[in-house]
Amino acid sequence: xxxxxxxxxxxxIKNLMHPYTNARKLETEGPLVIESGEGIYVTDNNGxxxxxxxxxxxxxxxxxxxxxxxxxxxxxxEKLPFYHIFSMRSHGxxxxxxxxxVNLAPVPxxxxxxxxxxxxANDTAVKMLWYRAHALGTPEKKxxxxxxxxxxxxxxxxxxxxxxxxxHTSFGLPLPGFLHTGSPHYWRDAEPGxxxxxxxxxxxxxxxxxxxxxxxxxxAAFIGEPVNGGGGVIVPPQGYxxxxxxxxxxxxxxxxxxxxICGFGRTGNMFGTETFGMKPDMMTLSKQITxxxxxxxxxxxNERVFAxxxxxxxxIGTFGHGYTGGGHPVGAAVAxxxxxxxEEDKLLDHVGDVGAHMQAGLAALTGHPLVGxxxxxxxxxxxxxxxxxxxxxxxxKPGALGGIAAAKMQANGVISRNMNDALAFCPPMIITHAExxxxxxxxxxxxxxxxxxxxx
Length: 456
Ligand code: PMP
Fold this sequence. Notes:
Elements: H1 8-15, H2 23-29, E1 34-38, E2 41-44, E3 49-52, H3 55-58, H4 67-79, H5 92-104, E4 111-115, H6 118-135, E5 143-147, H7 156-161, E6 178-181, H8 186-189, H9 196-214, E7 219-224, H10 240-250, E8 254-258, H11 272-275, E9 282-285, E10 297-301, H12 303-316, H13 329-344, H14 347-364, E11 371-377, E12 380-385, H15 400-411, E13 414-415, E14 417-419, E15 422-425, H16 433-453
Parallel strand pairs: 3-13, 5-6, 5-7, 7-8, 8-9
Antiparallel strand pairs: 1-2, 2-3, 4-10, 9-10, 11-12, 12-15, 14-15
Bound molecules: 4'-deoxy-4'-aminopyridoxal-5'-phosphate.
4'-deoxy-4'-aminopyridoxal-5'-phosphate binds next to helix 6.
């Protein structure tokens, strides 16, 4: 298709620069053009249908054809297509959504602040902490600790907090003042013979050592995803968040829960914070908040965060931060409707039920010669692919094995995604048992074909 003049593929290559893409590879291979969506499926411009096992970007929780969201957007477009909430202006959808989110929060939260993307929400969290540090007369308390393999987005600050090489290499990041500690990836990072409990204690000890080396008076916050998605779906071991929280409390360091993937049902509760018993001071939210039908994100902040910022804005004259589209009425209306659907359709119960079915099916695949580990919770999971279960090695280049498997999945009608050699599953929350079974059967076939291709 890409060689046909004026095809969508040819015009794409000519004009469109893609995010997260090898631009030269795109020129030779051309893009996959998705044209329409229905339920958990999307269809490309050649009529091939794919089961979207990633919900797009971990985000279209209600699938690709929820008419109620279309109707909510249309109603709001007709009534008030845009207004902002700067300078003491407001509108109903922003107020309704802020109230809804503050009430939904699993720990006491004081206010909602609206942004447009997960990255912006995380950048805003840090700017709030910096402003707060000045308000409290401790301007040196500004450093942020995140985790290796953590994913928090791509704006300059969010990318600095992200702990993945692609987001730092050749960008000259991270910025100074952004520190990384070890990931809770037990299967990959545990010492030989180390128990989960010992591994958790070691991670907590390493965090404490980092804090002491830097000076606790210089550290504002720790940020982490309840389940780390972009690093390869890393579900923390039992007791991990409690051990981390204890260290943070000891040194008066705030916790930011990045709920951009986990929020709104993904782990079987409304928030990952509940699933793992976290006690965040700030929560960043996006993706499933609108099922990604509109770009939208939000932060929830507790009174410890809000009160000094409010006082400082009074002293200075304003809180000099905000985005034109933040709290957009159409996005807010779609978010409110998404939350109504999650509640009315009892989707949290459904995720618990169909999620257990998916996890059991994926766990059964650990018998496959290529599957080193299955991990997951609710409706998010990964299969870690290896060529040698003993040494946990893959092919020569990290990600090569995962790349072959993801391509086989696509050829078998399933869109998955490999993070290095972890093959991820994060299907729309509306997926049925039968659709899970179909996804698992296609996954099994793809793994068999991958093994055959590499001569295993
Ligand atoms: N945080 C997490 C946990 C994410 O997974 C992502 C995106 N995958 C982001 C932040 C960044 O969100 P966005 O791409 O909307 O900026």
